[in-house]
Specification:
The chain contains seven helices and six strands. The chain has about 180 residues and is of the alpha/beta class. Strand 2, helix 2 and strand 3 form a beta-alpha-beta unit.
Length: about 180
């Protein structure tokens, strides 16, 4: 059985920071595959801006050239908010070891996640750098030089921060919804 890195999120919109994380994970020799898992609805949010189907479409375009990266629609197919523990339990049926990838901005609320202790016993956390947040030594540190967030992009769209594979589509979509 294979070892995977699970990188979940809203990806609303996907940006070059997300792509940089996946590319860095793909270079780690102890990971066989990277699973990119868009949420139907983030358990900490009340809505998404782009539909889950559209976000999956964009992610598949972005990561299509990579043979060890899978965009998995498990959470979207549940048609509800799905906890990380539920997703990890689903993936443990097929993979022997799971690294769970989070951004450093999630560290302050990590222990408040649903069934954190159980989740923590099932995965090894990889934490991607962000906003100069200090990352404890108990986590695997993943240095990422892109400092951008989806919420920043929704407020101030900048196509240079979007993956070139679908930058035009993403920029047009968010500009259109902001004008409504």
């Amino acid at each position: 059985m294979e070892t995977i890195a699970l990188f979940g999120g809203s990806f609303d919109p996907p940006h070059i920071g997300h792509k940089a994380i996946v590319e860095a994970l793909d270079k780690l020799n102890y990971i066989d595959k990277v699973i990119v898992m868009p949420t139907f609805l983030n358990p900490f949010k009340s809505s998404s801006h782009a539909s889950s189907e559209l976000r999956i479409e964009w992610l598949r375009k972005i990561f299509h050239p990579f043979h060890n990266i899978i965009v998995d629609n498990y959470e979207v197919k549940q048609n509800r908010a799905v906890t990380s523990l539920e997703t990890v339990s689903y993936l443990r049926e097929r993979y022997s070891k799971i690294y769970l990838v989070i951004g450093a901005d999630n560290l302050r609320s990590l222990e408040k996640w649903n069934n954190f202790e159980q989740l923590n016993s099932l995965v090894t956390f990889i934490v991607a750098s962000r906003d100069n947040i200090e990352i404890e030594e108990r986590f695997i540190y993943l240095k990422i030089d892109e400092n951008i967030s989806s919420s920043q992009l929704r407020e101030q769209m900048d196509s240079s921060k979007l993956p070139k594979e679908c930058a035009v589509e993403i920029e047009k979509y968010y500009k259109d919804i902001n004008e409504q």
